[in-house]
Amino acid sequence: MNHNELIDEAFSFLDQAYYELEKDPAALQLRKNEIRDEINAKGTYSHTYEELEQGAKMAWRNSNKCIGRLFWNTMTVIDARCASTVEEVTNALLHHLKVATNGGKIRPTITIFEPGKVRIWNHQLVRYAGYETEDGIVGDPDSVDFTNQVIKLGWRGVGTSHDVLPLVFTMNDDKPLVIDLPEDHVLQVEVEHPEYDFSSLGAKWYAVPIISDMRLEIGGIDYGAAPFNGWYMGTEIGARNLADTDRYDLLPKVASVMKIDTSSNATLWKDRALVELNRAVLYSYQKAGVSIVDHHTAAKQFQKFEQNEAKAEREVTGNWTWLIPPVSPATTHIFHKPYKNKILSPNYFYQEKPF
Amino acid sequence: MNHNELIDEAFSFLDQAYYELEKDPAALQLRKNEIRDEINAKGTYSHTYEELEQGAKMAWRNSNKCIGRLFWNTMTVIDARCASTVEEVTNALLHHLKVATNGGKIRPTITIFEPGKVRIWNHQLVRYAGYETEDGIVGDPDSVDFTNQVIKLGWRGVGTSHDVLPLVFTMNDDKPLVIDLPEDHVLQVEVEHPEYDFSSLGAKWYAVPIISDMRLEIGGIDYGAAPFNGWYMGTEIGARNLADTDRYDLLPKVASVMKIDTSSNATLWKDRALVELNRAVLYSYQKAGVSIVDHHTAAKQFQKFEQNEAKAEREVTGNWTWLIPPVSPATTHIFHKPYKNKILSPNYFYQEKPF
Ligand code: HEM
Ligand code: HEM
């Protein structure tokens, strides 16, 4: 991006952010002059904390795939741009884990590092390893690539189906650092069912999904390390992580515990097992005092978000294929209307894997 | 469409159809000359039976929203282009109902009328009336508009929740004709559950979905009346017609029969009720000897269709948002891959309502 393009991106963000923050036009003009000078002198510019906070929140609001956007304005935004040593970055990540987990009362949180300084290799800060063995994959098949990388870097896991992977990040494109997560930082929930005995499944999951491999773009500035989290919607665990055939693939085991007839597709055994697995996830998180939302409530909250946005005279963009829940989608209003999948800025984007 | 455009459309259809039918190049050339002459003389042209059959089948194969396309080549194509009186059209429609129903062993069937001659007002040949009453809608809310029209035309229904609507069609844009369906032509299935007592729901549905308001386009020719049917996929009945809140809305009743806790979304009572309603639909149709397919089997059949098409070196186009089933979509392979929603010809299209 050349200077003028960056100035355009910066100004267009400023215009919207300052309008939303109800800043007066003089302040906006002053700040624009400042940013123009900074870009012309250094080729880039630096956001104030207030801009960073508003930008990160707007980026969530603009996340077309996210059903949780009602709460976009309540996120805790942690400015970690001054973290410049391995220790400082590690501390910032552990601090995020702690603040976000909050003993189960999960707080939507983002920690933003200086552009270009840090790159986190983990897909999420907490995730289970996946090992290729002679008897098939042990652990989370989705983590096999990353686990192989981490092993190459010298890490050894115990080899259970739920080994928490270490933090891996680079600083200034230097050698990757591998740092084990202290056990007491990783809240986890054993999945039990209110009626059936699910203990033979050995199903558990961690409390907080902290996406750590996406790029946050605000006003033309790319934050390549900006881990963020909300709380889980139950189906993410019960209908995907634990159920997909290329993940923990638990539906046959659930059906067997439930003693249902799996001799034909038409008994809908998969559907029955799926619903009970999802009930168990919601039940267990609630029992453990860990925030979680079911897909019906989440859809209702999203409807409220749509109403709020209409009031604010902003268009709601959305990606229907991600917004519909993977369990009983037609029971939510989302299924029955179209969404325009226009990508607005600020936003969160995929970036190339660093390994 | 001017003559040259029509010739282009005709030829492009001919090229593909004759290639698939393994006709020799000379036959193709001869037929092209014939069609060019016919268009230049009359402004339109007429398909041979073979072309009509192949075109209707290709149109099914190209139906991006349809998960049932594995069977595209097995459809019975009935040429009713010579039907030119009210009696002949009525007989053709009743014949379709009979041949397609086939005592429960449903045959995919299409009946094609002369372009411009007939326009069927029904959305499907068999459908339940919907009446607006002081206590809310009785019957199928989706039929309220059409039912009002039919009442304006002098028809009177009994007023139950399952009154079969009459056939309504125009000929040569003349006055609409209203013709009651003989009861013995309309196979219906009472929905019962293998374990729970569903009798208080009064749920039933008809055997054969015969879409009668779409336009079939083949080689530039529009067939505005070409009712077609397959058999049902269970979710169409159990997860939409009987479940949607703006249709028969049975989930609360199902939950009450099942005696499940509906005090909170997180009990997933809607999801549990939905699965059991869908089980009941599949169970009842099977018990009644009426063809039906569950969504898991349908997805597998669609996968086979994709493989067949790859072998035939044809691209499979699809509309993901319609192809995924509305129950447990992520348990099917369809959920996990993208489809290109390119509209090929021949195809079935929506057309403006005639009322
Ligand atoms: C507060 C509770 C939240 C809930 C219940 C929630 C729910 C969801 C769900 C169900 C998905 C789809 C995930 C999938 O199918 O893999 C999603 C995606 C997403 N959400 Fe949220 N979310 C929350 C908070 C957040 C926050 C705090 C942010 C960012 C600040 C965010 C940004 C996103 C993004 C960028 C995606 C797409 C991820 C991707 O492309 O892989 N969400 N969210
Ligand atoms: C043989 C069994 C068949 C099955 C199981 C099947 C299944 C389905 C399903 C589940 C849908 C989605 C319906 C909805 O969500 O409302 C659909 C749509 C469709 N199918 Fe099929 N189908 C079959 C036969 C046929 C035939 C024979 C044709 C045409 C010759 C056809 C053409 C279409 C079209 C055009 C649509 C889209 C309808 C619309 O836009 O409203 N299908 N099919």
UniProtKB/TrEMBL annotation, chains A, B:
Molecular function (Gene Ontology), one example: nitric-oxide synthase activity
Keyword Cell cycle: no
Keyword annotations of the record: Heme, Iron, Metal-binding, Oxidoreductase
Organism: Guptibacillus hwajinpoensis
The protein's Enzyme Commission number: 1.14.14.47
Family of this protein: Belongs to the NOS family. Bacterial NOS oxygenase subfamily.
Name the UniProt record assigns to this protein: Nitric oxide synthase oxygenase
Subunit structure: Homodimer.
Annotated function: Catalyzes the production of nitric oxide.
Domain Nitric oxide synthase (NOS): 3-354
Residues that, per the record, bind heme: C66
GO terms for biological process, alphabetical: nitric oxide biosynthetic process
Miscellaneous information on this protein: This protein is similar to the oxygenase domain of eukaryotic nitric oxide synthases but lacks the reductase domain which, in eukaryotes, is responsible for transfer of electrons to the ferric heme during nitric oxide synthesis.
Signal peptide positions (record): none
UniProt entry tagged with the keyword Heme: yes
Catalysis performed (reactions): 3 reduced [flavodoxin] + 2 L-arginine + 4 O2 = 3 oxidized [flavodoxin] + 2 L-citrulline + 2 nitric oxide + 4 H2O + 5 H(+)
Cofactor(s) listed: heme
